[in-house]
């Protein structure tokens, strides 16, 4: 059984940093692309960042490029999202997703497995 467990969210002020983690169990982690999405109240789940199975390729939403960094440690079955220079508009529940292939994409429906989410709230 595949499980994804996110952690690291919290309440911070604008300009602060947070690092989210997502630990995966039940699969050979390095075989699968991973991504972070976020969902604000009343909105759709939006793409944030993705990383290939071997970590050689990353891609970001325009709104976070240069501020957020996605990385993975395949030995620890963990994907990270380092978030710097946070803004109030970054407030959302952040979810990690895992595809069944190594190829990363930006569409939520292409990710087969999801965590329960972690709340990030940025105050102004």
Describe this structure in words.
The chain has 124 residues and is mainly β. The chain has strands at 3-7, 10-13, 18-25, 34-39, 46-51, 58-60, 68-73, 78-83, 92-98, 113-114, 118-123. The strands form two sheets. Strands 2, 4, 5, 6, 9, 10 and 11 form a seven-stranded mixed sheet that branches. A four-stranded antiparallel sheet has the order 1-3-8-7, with no helix packed on it. A hairpin with a 6-residue loop joins strand 5 (46-51) and strand 6.
The unreliable regions are none
Q: How many extended strands?
A: 11
H-E order: EEEEEEEEEEE
**Helix vs. strand class:** mainly beta
What is the helix content? under 10%
Name the beta content range: over 45%
Q: Report on the biggest sheet.
A: 7 strands, mixed
Q: Distance N terminus to C terminus?
A: 40 Å
Mean of residue pLDDT? Answer: 95
Radius of gyration: 13 Å
Choose one word for the global shape. globular
Count of alpha/pi helices:
0
Give a brief description:
This protein is mainly beta. 0% of the residues lie in helices and 48% in strands.
Compile the SSE list and pairings.
Elements: E1 3-7, E2 10-13, E3 18-25, E4 34-39, E5 46-51, E6 58-60, E7 68-73, E8 78-83, E9 92-98, E10 113-114, E11 118-123
Parallel strand pairs: 2-11
Antiparallel strand pairs: 1-3, 3-8, 4-5, 4-9, 5-6, 7-8, 9-10, 9-11
């Amino acid at each position: 059984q595949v499980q994804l467990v996110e952690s690291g969210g919290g309440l911070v002020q604008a300009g602060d940093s947070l690092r989210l983690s997502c630990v995966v169990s039940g699969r050979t982690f390095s075989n699968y692309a991973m991504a972070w999405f976020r969902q604000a109240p009343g909105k759709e789940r939006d793409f944030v960042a993705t990383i290939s199975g071997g970590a050689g390729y990353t891609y970001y939403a325009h709104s976070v490029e240069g501020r957020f960094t996605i990385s993975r440690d395949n030995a620890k079955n963990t994907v990270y999202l380092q978030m710097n220079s946070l803004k109030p508009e970054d407030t959302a529940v952040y979810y990690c997703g895992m595809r069944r292939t190594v190829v990363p994409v930006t569409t939520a429906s292409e990710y087969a497995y999801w965590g329960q989410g972690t709340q990030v709230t940025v105050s102004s």
